[in-house]
Write a structure and sequence with these properties.
By secondary structure, the chain is mostly helical. It has helices at residues 3-7, 10-21, 26-37, 41-53, 76-104, and strands at residues 24-25, 57-62, 65-70. The protein folds into two domains: 3-70, Arc Repressor Mutant, subunit A; 75-117, no CATH class. Strands 1-3-2 form a three-stranded antiparallel β-sheet. α3 crosses α4 (41-53). The longest helix has 29 residues, at 76-104. The protein is elongated and about 70 Å long. The termini are far apart.
Length: 117
């Protein structure tokens, strides 16, 4: 499953948000998502497994706990996609802002085919 499909699920997105702040034991992650989403422990374990299998997070056993952390670079494909489309929309919004400023200052060059009439 690709990163986009994995993060399409709101529970998994929330888990990644939690782990973006700091590594955390499964119990802490589970407590938050169980309270916020009303899911049970088996569902939490399943969602963490999906994140591990997609190599978005890793888990390390420390004593009786599993400590989860985000895998460095795991979300680079998503970041690159967002950056590419962010630049596209930024350019378009900048052009719109320029056109609106021109129109509000009484400038010419209306984008309407009828010349603004």
């Amino acid at each position: 499953m690709n990163s986009f499909a994995v993060l399409a699920d709101p529970v998994r997105r929330r888990m990644v948000e939690l782990l973006s702040e700091a590594e955390a034991p499964a119990g802490r992650i589970g407590a938050v998502v169980m309270a916020e989403f009303g899911i049970g422990q088996p569902a939490v374990s399943n969602q963490l497994r999906v994140l591990r299998e997609a190599e978005i997070v890793s888990a390390e056993r420390q004593g009786s706990q599993r400590i989860y952390r985000i895998v460095p670079g795991a979300l680079d494909d998503i970041a690159a996609w967002v950056d590419r489309y962010g630049r596209l929309w930024s350019q378009r919004l900048d052009a719109l802002e320029t056109e609106l400023a021109r129109e509000s200052s009484g400038g010419h060059g209306s984008a309407r085919p009828d010349g603004g009439r």
